[in-house]
Design brief:
Blueprint lengths: L2 E5 L5 E5 L6 E8 H7 L11 H12 L4 H4 L2 H7 L5 H11 L3 H13 L11 H20 L1 H12 L4 E3 L2 H4 L5 E3 L2 E7 L15 E8 L2 E6 L3
Parallel strand pairs: 1-3, 6-7
Antiparallel strand pairs: 1-2, 3-8, 4-5, 5-6, 7-8
Helix pairs in contact: 2-6, 6-7
């Protein structure tokens, strides 16, 4: 009996029978830092323990709640561009005081903390807020391009984003000469959804550490 193979992010393979034919099924995990790199975004580095302290200060002060920085899931949809720099400029134009206000709230809360206070500066806090509000939002909600770029690199070819006309046909982009659609892994578990997508599908699953993807290019 012929077998198929699954390639994991670590490069290992698993074999199992599949309808009497040999197919290469590939599965990768894209880590959070890799997502940012694929989107040409800077990866912020902070001193040990300070990220946890700033995160706690943000939770306590509610500095990045919608009333302060806006409803990010809606704003990223309103944003007409595709580049991180353009998103930053667009966001700061529409919410010119949000970063400063959030930074102030978080920094004031950190003043109540005693542990590791000597490691925290206002500049670090501002960088962390920008990373959360601008970069992480961009990477989290605009990750389709990162997936296309990642798979294209794995397949040693190029990629293109879909045109508006192609998007209306459930096409998210092109890898080499192959049109593809990008869907969440839960799409497979919904038998009620009619199978109307006529192109190859790349499935993804969001995790805390990044995104796991799987595709089967025949």
């Amino acid at each position: 009996m012929e077998t198929s193979q699954i390639e994991t992010f670590s490069g290992s393979y698993a074999k199992y029978p599949i309808r009497g034919r040999k197919v290469m099924k590939k599965s990768f995990k894209i880590k959070s830092d890799e997502l940012l790199r694929l989107l040409n975004a800077d990866i912020r580095e902070f001193p040990k323990y300070t990220r946890q302290l700033m995160n706690l200060a943000n939770q306590n002060s509610q500095a990045t709640r919608p009333r302060v920085v806006g409803q990010m899931s809606e704003l990223i949809q309103e944003f007409p561009g595709k580049e991180l720099k353009a998103w930053e400029e667009w966001y700061q134009k529409h919410h010119p005081t949000a970063i400063e206000e959030a930074t102030t709230k978080i920094f004031d809360m950190i003043g109540l903390f005693e542990d590791a206070i000597g490691k925290i500066t206002r500049d670090i806090v501002k960088e962390w807020v920008k990373d959360l509000v601008i970069t992480k939002t961009f990477a989290g909600l605009k990750f389709q391009e990162a997936i296309l770029k990642y798979v294209a690199d794995k397949e040693s070819t190029t990629y293109e984003m879909a045109t508006p006309q192609e998007e209306s046909q459930n096409i998210d982009g092109k890898i080499g000469d192959r049109y593809v659609s990008i869907k969440p892994s839960t799409y497979l578990a919904k038998p009620s959804i009619p199978i109307s997508i006529k192109v190859d599908i790349i499935y993804y699953k969001k995790m805390k550490s990044g995104i796991e993807i799987e595709y089967d290019f025949k």
